[in-house]
């Protein structure tokens, strides 16, 4: 397996990501310029390829159930051999603000994301194009193994990433209310109904959120809001995100980022 071109792209994109800074109230950081994408890369307009088949809850459940049993020890080898450490850290805690933490993530969620990158359902830009090029090299066993490896790692604690400082407007709900009660007036279900009260995650595509990089969290919800990301099987996250204000998104990002340490966040 010739991974030299991939190594060069990883190095360029990872180095550029060090320049990203949190700008309170500003749009989420945009990907830094990188080398031209190969022919296998995703569409520049963020649309999945025509042959990328969207999930239904049923097909997602069946596909995840069909994956082989993951081996975390082998998964660590996959993590190292495919240079996952370059962006996600030695144990799944990303060293920069631009990448998600994977430590403590539910195995089913990680596996689904890798399958989505393989098919092109995730096509948000340069990061997705890079992940696509990695994921297409992976076998189902490797996907299961690396997912098991991340699931065994401790969730990030006090990762040092900057927290947003949302300026709450009278109409905005605080994070604790959105997580535990939602907002019936906007038909917003509580976050906890899928992701758990402690942000531990739920079944299949309900990810663990505790300790997650807040910049990545904000960018993800903004991508769902705008339709840049639309790989959720029942469009639950897309529908949910469109009803949130920017301030509410930032409050949720801060709340979940601080959960593992039990800190008292200003967003609560």
Question: How would you describe this protein?
Answer:
By secondary structure, the protein is mostly helical. Among the domains are: 55-154, Cytochrome c-like domain (Cytochrome Bc1 Complex, Chain D, domain 2, Orthogonal Bundle); 175-261, Cytochrome c-like domain (Cytochrome Bc1 Complex, Chain D, domain 2, Orthogonal Bundle). It is 44% helix and 0% strand. It is built from 12 helices and no strands. Helix 5 crosses helix 6 and helix 10 runs antiparallel to helix 12 (246-258). Residues 16-43 and 261-268 have low confidence and may be disordered.
Provide the β-strand percentage band.
Answer: under 5%
Based on the structure given, which CATH architecture of the domain at 55-154 is correct?
Orthogonal Bundle
Please state the average pLDDT score: 84
CATH class of the domain at 55-154: Mainly Alpha
Question: What would you call the shape?
Answer: globular
Rg (CA only) = 18 Å
Order of helices and strands: HHHHHHHHHHHH
The number of helical segments is 12
Judged by helices, strands and strand pairing, the structural class is mainly alpha
| Total strands | 0
**Alpha carbon gap, first and last residue:** 48 Å
